[in-house]
Amino acid sequence: MQTLEIVRSITGKNGLTIDAGTVREFPEEVAVKLIEAGLGRLVKPDPGESVRWQSPLFGELEAPALEIGEDAFTMRHPLTGEVVTLPNEWLISLEERSSILEYQAHLSREEADRESRREFFGLFRKGGTA
After folding, report:
1. Residue 108: Cβ within 10 Å count
2. Are the C-beta atoms of residues 37 and 49 closer than 8 Å to each other?
């Protein structure tokens, strides 16, 4: 599920209307279609959201989960400070990867989200190494 804000009113085949400014969850495939059609946009997560983990070298660490801007999102490596920035369209792929990990690897949602961010960071960082 993706949380979207509707930017232009939509009238469905059943006659129901969703007014502009409405925020609600949609299945992934519907969310993608609405975003591509310019009818909705992803709702930004709370900018204060962060992830905590235990580092064997540095103890407990905390860092922003994602920093989402108007057109792109940023992931920062908590130790090296290395930055990866991708267009917001990639958020759907990041969410899809989390769902796959949650289902196939039997991870909790939080663990799946952390792992998908780690994998994405590894794929798109300079040099392309995980």
Report:
1. 9
2. no
> Token pair of 116, please?
């998908």
Residue 76 has, within 13 A of its CA and on its CB side, a CA count of 11
42-99 residue pLDDT tens: 776 554 456 666 666 667 666 655 677 778 878 776 666 677 788 888 888 888 888 9
Q: Which residue has the tokens 């792929």?
A: 93
Cα radius of gyration (the chain): 17
Rounded distance between C-alpha atoms, residue 10 and residue 40, angstroms:
10
Q: Which helix (H) or strand (E) holds 75?
A: strand 72-76
